[in-house]
Write a structure and sequence with these properties.
59 residues; single chain; mainly alpha; flat
Length: 59
């Protein structure tokens, strides 16, 4: 799985969640979406790094 495929997968999940929030007018879920986006970005950028075991031990 290459990097562009991963980026596209993450982008599609975020897009579907944003469309759901817009359709149902559930604006209280926006902070949840932000936290999920931040955790996804953290997992994406630290996947192959030396810090990955430290991050996994926190969760």
């Amino acid at each position: 799985m290459n990097t562009m495929t991963k980026v596209h997968d993450y982008y599609s999940v975020i897009t579907e969640l944003a469309m759901y929030l817009k359709d149902t007018k559930s604006y209280w879920l926006a902070p949840v979406m932000f936290v999920l986006l931040a955790l996804s970005a953290l997992a994406f950028f630290l996947e192959g790094s030396v810090l990955a075991p430290a991050i996994y031990s926190v969760f």
